[in-house]
Amino acid sequence: MNDTIRHLLSSQQEQLELLLLLLQQEYSALGERQVEQLEMLLPEKQLCTDRIAELDRQLSQHEDLAQLKTQDWFHQQVAQLQSLLAECRQQTQVNQQIVEQSQVVIARLKSELLQSHGRSGLTYTAKGKPAIADKGPGIKA
Q1: Closest C-alpha to 95, from 11, 18, 19
Q2: Residue 120 gets which letter from DSSP?
Q3: What is the pLDDT of residues 29-81, one digit of tens each?
Q4: Of 88, 94, 115, 135, whose CB is crowded by the most CB atoms within 10 A?
Q5: Which burial class, exposed, middle or buried, applies to 38 when counting CB atoms under 10 A from its CB (0-12, 13-18, 19+)?
Q6: 3-state DSSP call for residue 137?
Q7: DSSP letters spanning 59-81
Q8: What ranges make up the beta strands (E) of the chain?
């Protein structure tokens, strides 16, 4: 009983540590604007979160879970896992803020480029985003 649970908890810790590492790599890639690395990290993060969810499911369905919750070593291990999970969530929030800020900067740059391209051809989409009206080649014969 204990060996199975200890193995599941250990595997859960390994996966959370891996996820934290991947999130830290994502942070670096975002800062350095390395699109290729970001694309490579995405499936790895997805696989890691899938594994974490599966291990969590296995732990929650273990027949001796109620008994294990009364043991100190189990509480200590779960506390470590929760601490790692909190670190992952914090890093995810930081990464999300970077992405959101980058999107704002890109939108502003796009607007400025469109405006500098030609004020006479500048229009707005139904969503209020700036766009350039296609004036076409001129004369159609």
Answers
A1: 19
A2: G
A3: 998 989 999 999 999 999 999 999 999 999 999 888 888 888 999 999 999 99
A4: 88
A5: middle
A6: coil
A7: HHT-TTHHHHTTSHHHHHHHHHH
A8: 122-124, 130-132
